[in-house]
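worker-03 picked up job from queue 'complexes'. Input manifest follows; two sequence lines, order preserved.
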Amino acid sequence: MTDESFWGADFSGFEVVSIHEIFTKQGALLPKLTNDYVSAELVKVDKDPFINNAFVYRFYLVGKYLNNYRFSVCTFSHAIEIYPFKIRFDEQIVNELKIEPLVTVSSSEEATLLTKKALSSQRIRSVISGIIKLSDSESGIPF
Amino acid sequence: MNFLFWNVQEKPIFNELVELISDFSVDVVVLAEYSGDTQQLLRQLDSKNLNYFSLPNIGCERIQILTNISPGFFHIRRESDRISIREFLKDGHLPLLFLFAHLPSKKNYSEKDQTAIAADVRRELEIVEAAVGHSNTLVIGDLNMNPFESGIVAADAFNAISCLKTALRGSRVVQGKSYKFFYNPMWNLFGDTTGTPGSYFYLTSHFDSHYWNIFDQVLVRPKIAKRLDMHSLKIIDQNGDSSFVNTKGRPSLSDHLPLFFSFDSQPQDVI
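worker-03 finished. Artifact:
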């Protein structure tokens, strides 16, 4: 039997940026940008109403000083390969960006572009601002 | 606590709403498709010596909540575009969890889609129930499904059934997995012997048109279901001289009729 490796010599060419990495990296920036008021969380979920791939994840904004309030930004899903994947954003983001309710993303370039548009949308800015304001005023809300 | 839910279809219904809130001594007003000026509504209430607050929104602009209870007792927990989950924590009252919802309509979603969405909402709710450590939960809103549809009845969706005695078993097991029940009192409002036959009327050319539907609902976890005063539960088609229906008896002010119920939140030996 031959000792020859059938695996190929170099896997580095297959290194692509996954949507998980994009969200994780962007999520990690958020506490600094919001004085720790808002963070992000990427969670594996059992199912999604419209996406039935093997791996389903949901991306939340989290209000640390607001009883860990969570706002669901999007859900994405892929098979064992990370591309293509399907992603479904919050309905107001869909309307604002004029995108399909369920988008199939085929490459990391496409993923980066779409995520950038979504995370800089008016809707996301409004939710982040709402979390900060309410965190600040929670103690000031009349009892 | 008295609750009023109304999908007002973006209609200017200030006067009728103020009268309802006043006449029914409503403590928590939940509005869907409300596009009016909330401050103006609060001022109008104030002019009748009704001191109400608007609960702040973050991510669920589809639902507006007004209350005469101080907003600080309502803690916002989790939201998406379609739902707002809030916990009510006040001394002398049972801790309660409210899921206020305006779920997608049949215009854009199939029954299968609606069921899947309901299942997703149920999962989000149960995460919060686990986090807060109780399931004294009420679901209130325009669910855009009838009580008999899959999204309301299916075990992995709301699992809301018409029989409290059965629901008090707590849960049912399907394919080895346990699903907690909701009790759905809305079944008692079907038919035309006790009032209007539903909360929403629509005519279709389909063979199986129901004409009247009960999309606007309250679901309650069985353990606290007896706190909901069944005699108070009603779909309102008239208040004093104001009729909310046309000469055919169909909704006229909005395409939905308001839903009212009373719930006893005083602590007993329930938890």
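worker-03 released lock.
Residues 16-136 of chain A form one domain.
The interface with chain B takes residues 45-50, 63, 66-72, 90-92, 127, 130-131, 133-134, 137-138, 141-143 of chain A (CB under 8 Å).
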